[in-house]
Amino acid sequence: MTYIWINPVTEHMYQVSTLEAFLERHGLTRVRCRGDWGAVVREKYRIRAGETEGTVVDARCPMACNLARELTQGSAPEGIPGNFHIPDIEPILIHCAREISAREDLKGSPKLITTPCRALAEAGNALELADTRFLTWNGLMESVGEILPGDPPEDSPIPPGFFDSLGLEMDSLTGRGPIEAYIRAGGRDEARLAELLYCENGCHNGDGVVRNG
């Protein structure tokens, strides 16, 4: 039996019956996370922001995180201003995948973790989790030989504002241009956290989800 975890963007692209029928046709059994990994990740950022002077950079998005690291790494005093800290906090999807990979009830069976973008799939596969493979939703459809047309939601299932409940002074940016401009300008001294999503307005615009037409 092959188990599959469906990322929230893909889940919102289809009617439940359509998605379940697709999985059944291809011998895939859907599995869900038991832990509330969104809450766990949010709490990790709250703790890190409380321990850190300067601005903690949101590392949930590999593309945004890599861009921030590229721009700030080795910056000389006369280079990029600001006091940015990139934490070693894994994305929510990776937390979920670690749970699924380690679960005793799924032990010994292949597990697929679908992602909304190639960067997350690459980051996941680099971990070499037992019996676990990461691939984009588009990649999964190509591998089974069936394209299931769908409409990504107008808004991301995990939209900008994920950290609002922490009550921290925060800046939120999406898209490469705004992120790059923000970091090059040194951010904002008062910001304790910088929420960064590489895809415009969120992961529903990732390069790993199919679009009609």
What does this protein look like?
The mean pLDDT is 92. The strands form two sheets. Strands 2-1-5-6 form a four-stranded parallel sheet. The chain has a four-stranded parallel sheet with strand order 4-3-8-7, sandwiched between helices. The radius of gyration is 18 Å and the shape is globular. By secondary structure, the chain is an alpha/beta fold. Helices cover 36% and strands 15% of the residues.
List keywords for this structure.
213 residues; alpha/beta; four-stranded parallel sheet; 15% strand; 36% helix
Q: Radius of gyration, rounded?
A: 18 Å
- The largest beta-sheet arranges its strands as 2-1-5-6
Major β-sheet, in short?
4 strands, parallel
Number of helices: 8
Main structural class: alpha/beta
Coarse morphology: globular
* H and E order: EHHEHEHEHEHEHEHE
Count all strands and give the number: 8
What share of residues are in beta strands?
Answer: 15-25%
Ranges where pLDDT stays below 50 over 5 or more residues in a row are none
Concise synopsis of the structure shown:
The protein has helices spanning 8-11, 16-25, 37-51, 62-72, 92-102, 118-125, 137-144, 176-184, and strands at residues 2-5, 28-30, 55-57, 84-85, 111-115, 132-136, 170-174, 193-197.
Write the layout of secondary structure elements.
Layout: E1 2-5, H1 8-11, H2 16-25, E2 28-30, H3 37-51, E3 55-57, H4 62-72, E4 84-85, H5 92-102, E5 111-115, H6 118-125, E6 132-136, H7 137-144, E7 170-174, H8 176-184, E8 193-197
Parallel strand pairs: 1-2, 1-5, 3-4, 3-8, 5-6, 7-8
